[in-house]
Amino acid sequence: MAGWCDLYYLDESGFAPTLPTGYTWARAGGRALVWDEPPQRRRLNVLGALAPDGAARRLVWTSSPGKVDSAAVLDFICRRVAELPAPPPELPAGYRRARPCVIVLDTASAHVSKAVTTALPALAAAGVTLYYLPPYSPELNRIENLWRQTKYQALPVRSYRSLDALRAAVEDALHDHANHLRDDTTNLLKAA
Question: pLDDT digit string (tens) for 142-167?
Fold first, then answer.
């Protein structure tokens, strides 16, 4: 369809072994105790892209205990979000996506690194555009709501003893959200 594109909101979020506690319960007169796990080398970083609108609503992500760098961002954009056959410079000459893809992201250092900015012309030729938000405007990135909901509501356990337990809980929460997006899309298509 003319004028249509795949629109994604991309960002990363870090999850510590002990997540923020919004509230807790304790017996009257007692003190509430919450287990606290030290985060040293046990943070989970998740890079995600959300397409919240249209018939192609979806959520894709990747998680790692290490730092999210420009190579990880570029690979994620090319392979998981835009679903290109290869990242630049290995992209086949003349390749273009069937539908344009616009990816909205902030100006984090990994997003505006030399590796990413060098790939911009090849991405544009393939039909992928990176749209950078103004600095200090997280309210314009729709995936921020997903990160907040995941941290504060979708993870009922607030402290995880191992990185594997934290990763499993975050993955389950994101799978649930992705399934919810897919179910909503199916229901909308049936209603039409």
Answer: 999 999 999 988 988 888 888 899 99
Cα→Cα distances 171→40, 132, 165, 167, Å:
21, 27, 10, 6
Q: In 10 A of CB 3, how many CB atoms? A: 5
The DSSP line for 104-121 is EE---TTTSSHHHHHHHH
Residues 107-123 pLDDT 10s:
999 999 999 999 999 99
* Long-range residue pairs from 186-189, CB within 8 A, at least 24 positions apart, any chain: 188/55, 189/55
Find tokens 């900015």 and name the residue: 117
Fold of 6-15+39-191: Nucleotidyltransferase; domain 5 (3.30.420)
Nearest to 19 by CA among 153, 191, 131: 153
Q: Domain coordinates of the chain in residue numbers?
A: 6-15+39-191
